[in-house]
């Protein structure tokens, strides 16, 4: 009897050991060593800086896109699989020396949630991985992201070079707000590389682009523009909001140095949360261009003479943006918003794929519809940027298009009003299809001449294509066209497409999305 009991106990112990070994193997497979928490030194090297709890992730290839979006190290205290919300303003120091080291940037860790927060840190790290960057900084909005990025690069007396084909809010920030701080912008017509080259001078601190222009959907030739900028010692900043968190295009892969996003749009993806993010490629050599960027090299008066480039190396930019600009401006993302954006990231690849599929289907359907006079979408051969779009946008052509209806402004307004499924509002990147008639809404306060100069025609309707079934989206268009004052018998004016697909007039409207 004793022998039998001993035998049973041995068998049970062996089974337990086998189960433990299997569990360990599974954990290693699911949570490899490269995804564990990182040391303070490595955290510094990656540019996370003070105030960040961060989980490791790797940039993705197409085949493991969804996996990379979702994975993270479980919470060390609770083993929570979902990212916890750290609703705290501040963090207890181990002792006075620990606090002094954190404030002096001699040690990485949490100080105050205006500078960094554990939940926000997960979001930052994940977006950095998706964009192929070294580190990221989350902000309260997309406007805050671009403002902080520019303020980290330029001071009073400096300038930025940008195209005039920009989102209206960006144009207004560059044209109206930044000059109040002594930072001016040289706007060029279009996005020809040679025009950027001609505009650069010894006070130029960045070239600013959009990966897919809003509202013209122009796609710049990243590689040529980057080559020109780097020859002059100037970094390239790209607003990749329409690139959907790196799904459609990763500007860093084509040489861009800094990427900004309105995370409100495709990253969040559900119209619930305002947020922004800056991604540092970690590739720009600030030391080589010390004369143009002394703030990166010389002793910092706010940190007892600390030298950012000497201390933080490749991620100097993002660390300085965090501990100097964000610290003083305070436009930090809160942890509740970060959690919402993290939920959006987990379905980003699925949504982006559907956005692009639906947008191309809808664009082609509109192109053949007698109620439509023109369509602007980079996935169409008729779009001026189609060849560049094919080169750079290899997973789809984005989720936004514009079109003109026959019958003019009255018909355009009626088409939007008669939608049932599609919402009439000023946003893009939602999982729901959105429409707006800019002539009578966002640009209503302008004269007709000003509307035309900003790329808005009376017949233009902008559609942010959602993830609904394409048949339902098209059905809503069909019923709306039937109730509206469109004029299918008219030939329309295809040349109007140039006003959204190309053109040389500046996008001069400050305003809504």
Characteristic key phrases:
single chain; 513 residues; alpha/beta; Aspartate Aminotransferase, domain 2; Aspartate Aminotransferase, domain 1; 3 domains; seven-stranded mixed beta sheet; 11% strand; disordered C terminus; transferase; transmembrane
Could you characterize the architecture of this molecule?
- By secondary structure, this protein is an alpha/beta fold.
- It has three domains: 1-30; 35-346, 3-Layer(aba) Sandwich (Aspartate Aminotransferase, domain 2); 353-501, Alpha-Beta Complex (Aspartate Aminotransferase, domain 1).
- It is built from 19 helices and twelve strands.
- The protein has helices at 2-30, 40-46, 65-70, 96-103, 118-131, 142-153, 168-177, 193-199, 222-231, 294-297, 308-312, 316-329, 335-346, 348-367, 386-392, 408-417, 448-453, 470-483, 498-501; strands at residues 135-139, 159-163, 184-188, 204-210, 236-239, 258-262, 276-280, 372-376, 400-405, 423-424, 434-436, 460-464.
- The protein has a seven-stranded mixed beta sheet, with helices on both faces. A five-stranded mixed beta sheet has the order 8-9-12-11-10.
- α6 packs across α12, α8 packs parallel to α9 and α16 (408-417) packs across α18 (470-483).
- The longest helix is centred in the N-terminal third of the chain and has 29 residues, at 2-30.
- It starts with a helix and ends in a 12-residue tail after the last helix.
- Residues 16-60 and 489-512 have low confidence and may be disordered.
- It is an enzyme of class 2 (transferase).
- The chain crosses the membrane at residues 6-31.
């Amino acid at each position: 009897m004793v022998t039998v009991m001993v035998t049973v106990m041995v068998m049970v112990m062996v089974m337990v050991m086998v189960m433990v070994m299997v569990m360990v193997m599974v954990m290693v497979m699911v949570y490899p060593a490269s995804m564990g928490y990182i040391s303070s030194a490595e955290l510094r090297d990656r540019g996370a800086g003070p105030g960040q709890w961060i989980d490791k992730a790797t940039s993705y290839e197409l085949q493991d896109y969804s996996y990379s979006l979702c994975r993270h190290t479980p919470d060390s205290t609770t083993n929570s699989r979902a990212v916890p919300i750290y609703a705290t303003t501040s963090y207890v120091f181990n002792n006075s020396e620990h606090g002094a080291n954190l404030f002096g940037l001699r040690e990485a860790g949490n100080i105050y949630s205006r500078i960094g927060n554990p939940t926000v840190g997960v979001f930052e790290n994940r977006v950095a991985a998706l964009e192929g960057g070294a580190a990221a900084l989350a902000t309260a909005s997309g406007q805050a992201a671009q403002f902080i990025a520019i303020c980290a690069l330029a001071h009073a007396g400096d300038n930025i070079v940008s195209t005039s084909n920009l989102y209206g809010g960006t144009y207004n920030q560059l044209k109206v707000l930044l000059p109040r701080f002594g930072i001016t912008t040289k706007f060029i017509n279009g996005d020809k590389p040679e025009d950027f080259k001609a505009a650069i001078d010894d006070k130029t601190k960045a070239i600013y682009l959009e990966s897919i222009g809003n509202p013209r959907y122009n796609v710049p030739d990243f590689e040529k523009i980057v080559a020109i900028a780097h020859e002059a010692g100037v970094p390239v900043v790209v607003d990749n909001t329409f690139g959907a968190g790196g799904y459609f295009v990763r500007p860093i892969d084509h040489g861009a140095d800094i990427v900004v996003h309105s995370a409100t749009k495709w990253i969040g993806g559900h119209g619930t949360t305002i947020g922004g993010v800056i991604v540092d490629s970690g590739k720009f050599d600030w030391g080589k261009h010390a004369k143009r960027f002394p703030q990166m090299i010389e002793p910092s008066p706010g940190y007892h003479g600390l030298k950012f480039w000497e201390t933080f190396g490749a991620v100097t930019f993002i660390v300085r943006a965090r501990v100097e600009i964000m610290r003083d401006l305070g436009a930090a993302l809160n942890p509740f918003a970060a959690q919402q954006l993290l939920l959006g990231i987990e379905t980003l690849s699925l949504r982006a794929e559907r956005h692009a599929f639906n947008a191309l289907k809808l664009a082609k359907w509109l192109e053949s519809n007698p109620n439509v006079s023109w369509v602007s979408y980079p996935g169409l051969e008729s779009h001026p940027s189609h060849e560049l779009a094919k080169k750079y946008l290899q997973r789809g052509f984005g989720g936004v298009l514009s079109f003109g209806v026959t019958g003019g402004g009255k018909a355009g307004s009626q088409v939007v009003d008669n939608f049932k499924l599609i919402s009439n509002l000023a946003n893009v990147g939602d999982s729901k299809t959105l429409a707006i008639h800019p002539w009578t809404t966002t640009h209503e306060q302008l004269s007709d001449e000003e509307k035309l100069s900003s790329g808005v025609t009376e017949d233009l309707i902008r559609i942010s294509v959602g993830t609904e079934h394409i048949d339902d989206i098209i059905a809503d268009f069909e019923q709306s066209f039937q109730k509206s004052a469109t004029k299918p018998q008219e030939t329309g004016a295809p040349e109007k497409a140039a006003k959204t697909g190309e053109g040389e007039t500046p996008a001069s409207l400050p305003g809504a999305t």
